[in-house]
Amino acid sequence: MKQFIITENDAWQRLDKFLKKLFPNASASLVYKINRKNKIKINGKKQDNEYKLQVWEEVKIFLQDDEFLTLSEKIKDTPQEIREKFDIKNIVYEDGDILVINKEPWINVHPWDHKTKESNVISQIQDYLGDKLNSLTFKPSLVHRIDRDTSWILIIGKKKDILTRLVSDFKEHKKIQKVYYAIVLWKLPSLSWKIDKKLLRIEWAKNEDKVQISEKWQVAISHYKVLKEHILKTSTWEQIISEVEVEILTGRMHQIRVHLASLWTPIIGDNKYGDKAFNAYIAKNFWLSRQALHSWKIQFFHYWKQKNQRLEANIKKDLTKFINQL
């Protein structure tokens, strides 16, 4: 028999959901069977699967030790996975509720993204935080997903209630202000402007762009401001390159990349929506082989502090080095 006390990170969820997380190796039918056969007691009583757990309730599970271990044992990282230590220099902000980091480019967010064995943000963060914040069914988790080859300000929720609220805010794009830094090809039409072009997402795109401008689909609004213009000179030609700040009012997939490309000013290094030939030239001569896009500033509502939190992640060295070379 195992006995547990429900904490805040495990409370307010249905009993069957709690059991499925506690027993990741059990099917839904087996979870229902365990409860149906009176092997789960909440404060000494049997409860329905729909029952919502409360803080400080006592849960007793009447299973043999070997059976409990078989159902609850987590799949361990394979020995082949590369584990790199998290660089604390990338911490932008940290308190008891959240951790905010400045993600490096070319690192996966989740284990086995892109079917590689490379290190990933999740593994690094879990190694950094250890088990001290883990509960029976909760681990600190990412509030939002990001691209592999982009540097990004990334929020990790340390507590379940904070995580749930922030995930909802990001999904609904409410109480959130996100500002990006980008280096683009050519000169923008004006020093500042609102791009208001609807976007169509094509789920199974193969020989076409996954996101396209379409007047029949989702509203997407971006505000840009030109920060500085540069001229790249070679022996045979000159090219204008612009640094821009972009604030998005909606959170559509590839929104900034598609919006800027629609103005004939694609992000440098973007091989999906940009100029592949120019990107190849930049990679060969300036060693910049990723899209020049950085999640720069963010404002969100900090629920524990009950106020807006504004943070900024330094622009990565590969982007500043490229600009300095110009």
Characterise this structure:
- The chain has helices at residues 15-22, 28-36, 65-72, 121-129, 160-172, 255-262, 276-286, 317-325, and strands spanning 2-5, 40-42, 58-61, 91-94, 98-103, 141-142, 152-157, 177-185, 192-196, 199-201, 211-213, 221-233, 238-248, 293-302, 307-312.
- With 326 residues, the protein is an alpha+beta fold.
- The strands form 4 sheets. Strands 9-12-13-8-14-15 form a 6-stranded antiparallel sheet, covered by helices on one side. A 4-stranded antiparallel sheet has the order 4-5-7-6. The protein has a 3-stranded antiparallel sheet with strand order 1-3-2.
- A hairpin with a 3-residue loop joins β4 (91-94) and β5.
- The N and C termini lie far apart (68 Å).
- The model has no long low-confidence stretch (mean pLDDT 89).
Summed up:
With 326 residues, the chain is an alpha+beta fold. Helices cover 23% and strands 27% of the residues. The strands form four sheets. A six-stranded antiparallel sheet has the order 9-12-13-8-14-15, with helices on one face.
